[in-house]
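Changelog note: in this version the structure field was regenerated for every chain. One regenerated record is shown below for reference.
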Amino acid sequence: MMPGSDLERRCATDVADTYRDTLGIPFRRPDERGYVSAPVLHFLWSRPWDNNALNWVASLRPSSVCVTDGEVKLNCKQWRVTVYLEDDSRTIKRIEQEVEVGLIGCSCGYDLQYGERA
C-alpha cells in the first residue's frame, strides 16, 4: 500500500468505524503510539484560575499539574496538565494535557495536531 494512498486512508478510517455501537465496544489499544499535548477543558479558558478550575483539572486524572504565566520546561511527563495563565496571572489562557495517542494512519503525535497522514 502506497503511503498517503486512498486505500491507506480508508483503512485508517475503517478502524474507527469498528467502534460504532450504541452500548460501547471494549477498546483495543493500538500497537503504535505517540505523544502530544492536547488542548482540554475549553470552557475554563478566559475564566479565573481558582478552586473550581482545579476541581475540573482533577477530573483529567493528571500525573502532575503545572500552572504558569510564561516559562515551561520541555521535559515530557505523561498525563501532566499545564495551565497557562494570562499576563494578570489569574485568568486561564489555555489548558493542555500531555497524552499518549494511537498512531493509526499517521506517523507521530505531532501529525494528529495538524491532520497529517502517514
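Spot check on this record: The mean pLDDT is 82. The chain is about 20% helix and 25% strand.
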